[in-house]
Design a protein that fits this description.
By secondary structure, the protein is mainly β. It is built from 1 helix and 10 strands. Strand 7 and strand 8 form a beta hairpin. It starts with 7 loop residues before the first helix and ends with a strand.
Length: 124
């Protein structure tokens, strides 16, 4: 992908929209749970009938516990449950998330740190 100035996320979404013009791609901001984690930038997802791309950025000041909500996906995505997705903080700390009923959870404990998570998943 080429960067032409401006916000990289918006450029990426526009590039996808031009490429897949006739496939109804939707871009939406995600609801994030600021009470357990501090948002870093804008969390969003881009999806069509087959796939969903999720970007979540957040800072965790203290360790989270299992099932602390990190983000809520739009209800019309209908994601299959994913029990264990490994993620790494910006300093190399390893953690895990899960997706269930369109909610992204910390799983089982989530160390403090800053996390930028990008996922591409197949829809149910």
């Amino acid at each position: 992908m080429f960067y032409s100035g401006g916000t990289p996320e918006l450029f990426a979404c526009n590039k996808i929209n031009r490429k897949e013009k006739d496939r109804r791609i939707l871009n939406t901001n995600l609801t994030t749970n600021i009470s357990v984690a501090h948002a870093l930038g804008t969390s969003f997802c881009v999806y069509n009938s087959q796939f969903v791309y999720i970007h979540i950025g957040f800072g965790v000041p203290v360790q989270l516990t299992s099932k602390d909500t990190l983000a809520i996906l739009p209800s019309d995505i209908k994601m299959q449950a994913v029990s264990n997705i490994g993620v790494v903080s910006t300093t190399g700390t390893i953690a895990s998330i899960m997706i269930q009923n369109n909610i992204v959870y910390a799983n089982p404990t989530f160390p403090q740190g800053n996390y930028l998570i990008d996922l591409v998943l197949k829809r149910a």
